[in-house]
Design a protein that fits this description.
By secondary structure, this protein is mostly helical. It has a two-stranded antiparallel ribbon with strand order 1-2.
Length: 155
């Protein structure tokens, strides 16, 4: 079926009229939204005239930086923010410190630790577990009750 020139012109005019209606109602909706927002907003000038409200706060713990306790294990220096933990780590035997470093700070798996020490995976788990138990005992000696829940290791 062939469209006549008048019919094509009618379609163009109808589409233009539709677009104008849509744009007009979109503008009306935007104007209403803006007015609703204006009714709920409070001007900053109004706030400063009545009473000064600070627009930000500062936390006390951010003013002074944390104390840092460097601990060297396996030739790597680790910065800790807990002095008791740093002291307990330093009081552990060298092998136990290495195990804790490899597992928690070096992100070694149990299998990789087992390969380093020439043992099986279950023996590596025993090394990790005993190192954490000894660390917990050292922390309790320092007067702290420390419960580890680190990567699924719980006491």
């Amino acid at each position: 079926m062939a469209c006549t020139e008048a019919y094509k012109e009618h379609i163009v005019y109808s589409f233009n009229a539709f677009c104008k209606v849509v744009i007009r109602y979109a503008a009306i909706n935007a104007w209403r939204d803006r007015n609703r927002r204006r009714q709920k907003e409070i001007s900053f000038e109004y706030l400063t005239e009545e009473k000064f409200y600070p627009l930000s706060t500062s936390d006390e713990f951010l003013k002074s930086p944390y104390e840092q306790y460097p601990v060297t294990i396996c030739g790597q220096t680790i910065i800790l923010t807990n002095g008791e933990l740093a002291a307990a780590l330093l009081s552990l035997p060298e092998k136990k410190r290495e195990i804790i470093y490899l597992y928690f700070f070096g992100n070694y798996t149990q299998q990789e630790i087992a390969d380093l020490y020439g043992q099986c995976k279950s023996t590596a788990w025993h090394y990790i577990h005993s190192a954490l138990q000894l660390l917990q005992e050292e922390m309790e000696v320092l007067g702290l009750q420390l419960h580890f829940i680190i990567q699924g290791v719980a006491f």
